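input
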Amino acid sequence: MISRASASDVMTLTSDVGPAPMQVGACLVLDAGPGFDVAAAQECIGERIRAVPRLRQRLVAAPPGCGRPIWIDDAGFEIGQHVRSVRCPAPGDERALLDLASDVVTDPLPRSRPLWSAVFVTGLIGATGTPGGRVGLVVTFHHVLADGIGGLAVLAHLVDGMPAPPRARFPVPPPSRRSLAADAWRGRRRALSSLARTRASIGQAVAELGVRRPVAATRCSLNQPTGRGRRLAVVRASLADIATLAHSRGGTVNDVVLAAVTGALRALLDSRGESVGTLVVSVPVSARASDSTGELGNRSGVMPVALPADGDLLQRLERTAQITQARKASVPGASAALLGAAFRLLAAVHLLRLMMNHQHLIHTFVTDLRGPDQPLTFNGAAVTDVIPITLTTGNVTVAFGALSYAGTLTITVVADSGRVPDLPVLAAALQAELAEAGARPRQPFGTKS
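output
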């Protein structure tokens, strides 16, 4: 069986031209107790990844004329190259854990190995003040290995509750050049025989991207070329409160997240002496038929949406719900193939990074994922917190990743450390927006000076 990178995967690889890698992840906080055995936890991960073949595969280029890159088993796979532990430099400081997680996720993964890592962060102080009572687990994926939904499916196989995977042959020899060439030609014939569907999909992609009625992003300080460094801040809210508000206004939880983000960004720009009435947000649109690990990689397109930044939260929410409902495409994720072709063309003429550093099409990225409703455990330790860590690239200085887990909605703000020194202002504004939505107000996590 030949497993190839999809058109979206190729777009992700092509887009990985900035100083920060196209990597995403999550930080799980485990209520482990002082007797947590890191060696046993590492062995546990090594056993459980057998259920997800992609975690023991690497992506390699196919020979000339043999189609897109392929995933093959890594015959030299060693779990110790992917799982390690570090001690938190400041055990009682939330900021230290977030900084460490940011450094881990932005550390480039070697392309010669499977594109993931897991790092245990030991020495955290427990909720009751017990030294060593908590352990962080920072899991990182290159975006070509899994998108957000795929990443959640992978995490589901790492925590407790899944049946033990059956023993399977490993490594499987890679396909021959002849079989790759034959498979590539079959794919080309299928593409030629479906030209009518291709024309229709282009129309659907154009609709999803909003190309027929484009709205340029107003120039402001949110768009500046970014560097390598990233800084995180996290805010939380009651998922039930957010869902109740969303449904009362004919919207979704995602609509509330978008409305809260635009309000927080407006407050940030106000503090900088800038005024922007409309913000253009890039929202991923999944084309996945299921949330299993059977087909990982990227299965999503993007939908740029011009949203109001003025008014109070309820006014923005109602308008946002109307706009997103009108923009929802009949074929979600259709834009991936069209974007992939455009990005490959720009990369071929060495203009992609220049375009990404000077684009004025969007202000920010917002990703919203629905995580597990019930609390999880890992190797017997309760997972008390799951912090999503998304990415930002090009000249987009700040992005947002939202994830629901066990009744709590967590939103992580990912900011360029050099371009957004006022991250605490943004985090506090976002927490205030969620409080206005009826959520329980809390001190923004990771913004203590």
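quick obs: Residues 253-271 form the longest helix (19 residues).
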